Automatic annotation (TrEMBL):
Plays an essential role in the assembly of succinate dehydrogenase (SDH), an enzyme complex (also referred to as respiratory complex II) that is a component of both the tricarboxylic acid (TCA) cycle and the mitochondrial electron transport chain, and which couples the oxidation of succinate to fumarate with the reduction of ubiquinone (coenzyme Q) to ubiquinol. Promotes maturation of the iron-sulfur protein subunit of the SDH catalytic dimer, protecting it from the deleterious effects of oxidants. May act together with SDHAF1. This is Succinate dehydrogenase assembly factor 3. CDD domains: Complex1_LYR_SDHAF3_LYRM10. It comes from Mythimna separata (Oriental armyworm). InterPro entries: SDHAF3/Sdh7. Its main location: mitochondrion. The keyword Mitochondrion applies.
Amino acid sequence: MSSLEHVSRVRRLYKLIFRVHRALPPELRIMGDNYARDEFKRHKKCNPEEAKIFLNEWTDYAITLAKQMKPLQQVKKKKVGEYMDPQLLDHMTDEQIVQLYELHKAATESTDEDIHLPEKKK
């Protein structure tokens, strides 16, 4: 793949991810947009092998999320995301595991805050 084709593919995928994120609840959209932006910046100068894996994983993510955001799927399942195979952790670097933990912590904190909000008095 030529350099121009690669840049074009990355740009299309990047834009697609942000379009799919528009269907997310606001707090998830902000978190997802920030995470995607950081990841794409972080992998801007990675080697071709890492780039291939990176693009495949983000493409799978965009497809999965787009399917889940369809209105009919929202009515049926009322869920976003899917569980990760724990065996994938064996293939991650320490840095990736820490990053995954931080993402999990941020996601659960916003959920916990939503649940524990005091009720408004009438």
